[in-house]
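Continuing the batch. This is chain 6 of the set; chains 1 through 5 are on the previous pages. Same settings as before, nothing changed between runs. Recording input and output for traceability.
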Amino acid sequence: MKKNKNYSKYKLSVLDMQPIDPPTGGGRIRLLGLYHNLGEYLSAKYIGTYDWQGEKFRDHYLSKNFREIDIPLSKEHFEKVSELQKRVGNKTVIDITFHKFAYLSKEYTDYAAKEIEDSEVVIFSHPWVYPLVKDKIDKKKQLVIYDSHNVEGFLRYVLIAEGAGEIENGLVKEVVRVEYDLCRFADIIFTCSHEDGELFNRLYGIPFSKIAIVKNGVFTGKIKPADIGGKNALKMKLELPAKKTALFIGSAYQPNVEAVNFILKELAPRLPGVFFVIAGGVGEAVLRDNINAAKPQNVRITGSLSEADKIIYLSACDFAVNPMFSGSGTNIKMFDFMAAGLPVVTTEIGARGIERRLSGGNKTMLVAGKNNFADAVEMLFGLVNGDKNGGSISDAALELVKEKYSWETISEDIGALIYNYRKKLGTEQPFFSVIVPSYERHSSLEILLKSLSKQTFKNFEVIIVDQSGKPFKDIDKYAASGMDIYYIHTHIKGAVKARNKGAFYARGKVLAFTDDDCVPINEWLKEAYDLFNNFDIAGIEGVIKSSKLNNPNYRTVTNEGFNKGVAFMTANLFIKREVFNAINGFDEQFENPHFREDTDLGWRALEYGNIPFGDKVIVFHPPHKRQIQRESLEERCRFFEKDVLLLKKHPQKYMELFLLENHWRNTPGFWENVIAGAKKYDIDLSRYEIMKYYLSLKLTLET
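Output for chain 6:
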C-alpha cells in the first residue's frame, strides 16, 4: 500500500478465547501469522483468554502494531465447563460453550465490549465470542469479519455429535446457530480454503462473493531447509538413528490423534526401515489414551516442543508424513514441512486448500489414501534415497510456500484488504472491478487509464497488479483525478497470478478483465452493464479488435470471425464475482507460460449460467511485432504445452476447440509442444482422442 498523508489509521480488534503466545497449535499460529504485519494504517489488538486455570492478566506486544491482551476466566466458569465435560465423555467443550458460561467471567466480557466500542474493525477469530458482544457493534461504522479456522458446524458434528446422545446433539445445534448468525452478520468471511467456502455456501447459503480465501501459512523467515551436513549433525545431537527419518507434528486435536494412531499401528510396523518422529502435544494425548500399549521401536514421541526445538526437528528429518483422515480447514503443519524442504506424503484432507503442483509441472507433495499410504511412503523413501525427483518435490514445495503461503506476505495482503474495505464502508458498491495485470508496459498502461477515465458508465473501480521492475510513477495522478484506483506493485510474476490477486481485492459485483495494452471504447462498461442489467447471465465475452491481421511480422490478438462462446480471452472478459469465487478463480497451473487459463475459466463459469457475446462491448488490442522475443512465433508456440492441461480438465470441450482452431494441422510447433507438455505434466495422451489426429497427420507426412 502506498504511503499517503490522507490515509486514516484504523483500530482493529480481534476476539477469541485462547492465548496466542506461545504460538503452539494451528489456531494460535494462524492468529499470529495473520495479524502480526497488517501495515502501518492498522493498529491491531487481540482480546483473548486462557482455556486452563492458573494464569494471570497479560498485556504485551507481539509485533510493532499487534498487541495481545489475555484476561483469565473465573474459577466458577471452569467448574461449569468441567461439569458439562464429564457428561459428554470428556470431549472438549470450553470453546463451544463459551457464550453460555462467559457470564461467569465478567472481567473478560466487559473488556471485550469496551474494546469493540473503540474499534473501526472487529474480527471474530472463531465464532465463540460473537454472541456476547454482537449488540455492541454498529455496522454503519464498523467493518465486521469472521476469520473462520474451520467450518465449525460441520467439524463439531464430526468430532462431537456423530453417533452421540442428546446433549452432544444440542451442543452442535448451538454451534451451527452461532456460526450461521455470525456468517450472516459479517461483512467478510475469511476461509482457509476454497473447500471451506463451498461448505459455508452449501450449509448456510453464504454467497461466494462474501468469502475471501485467506490461506494458512508459515514464517518463511524462520523455517528454512538444512543441507545434508546440517541434518546429520542435528541427528547426532538429537540421538536419532542413522536411517531415513519421517516427521509428524500435531497438537492434541482429535484428527491429529487419529493420524498418530495410524502411524503407530499401520505405518511404523509396515516400514521398519523408516524412523518416525511424532512431535507436539498430540504425543502426550496419544500416550495418555494408550498408556498400556507398546510403542514400535522405530518411533519417538517427543511431546510438546518449543518453537526452537520444533525447528531443530524439522531440520533434522528427511521427509514428513501427514495421514489426516478427518477435520476441516488447512493443516498448518504442511507449510512447516514445505518451508523446511521436507518432501511430504499426505492425504486429500491433509492437502486440503494447498496447491498440488506448480505451473512448472513439479509435484509439491504425494497424496495417498489410507490403503496405499505406506506404499506412497516407500515411494518417497526411495526418492529421498537418491532419485533426483525427491529433491524436485521439496524444491517445488519450497518455491510454492515462499510465493503463496508466507505469513509475512499473507498478513500484508489482508491488511490491505481490510483497510480498503473499511475505508469504503458505507459507500456504494462498484458494479465493475476492472482488473489489469501489467508488466513493463507503463506507457501502454497510461493509455488504458486515459480510456477508462472516459468511460460513460462511472460506477467502477480499477485494480492494477503491476509486476514491473519499478512502480508506475504516474499512478497518483489518475487516483487524484477521482478515479477509484487500487494499485499493487509486486515482485511475483505471472498474469494468471496477477488476475487472481486483483480479484482478491475486488469489491465489484462483476469482474472486468482486460490487458494493460488494450484500449476500450468509451461505452465499454455501459454496454456490458446493459447486458448484465437485462439478462441473468454469468458473464460476457466482449469483442477484441486488432489491426495488421494478415501481416506475418505481427502477432494480432482478436476474436473477430471466431466462434463465439468457445475460447474466451481475458483481453475482454466479464465474470460475476460470485461465479468467479464459486469456481475458485483462475487455475494457476496454466501459468508460466500463461495460456488457456481464460478458456478454462470460461468453461467452468458456464456451469453457473450463460456467457453471451457482447457485440457492442469492444476493446482494441494493438498488434505486437514478432521481432520482440516474448511475441515471437517460437516463443508463443511454446504456450501450446498448456493444451494438455485443458485437455485433461475438459476432454470433450477441448476437442471441439481443437478442431475449430486447427492448430494441429496448420501451426508449426504445435505437436512438439503438446508432446512436451504431456511429458512435463505427466499426462498420458494415448487415453485421449487427440492422438488419432496426431497419428493421422504423422502418417500423412510419412507417405
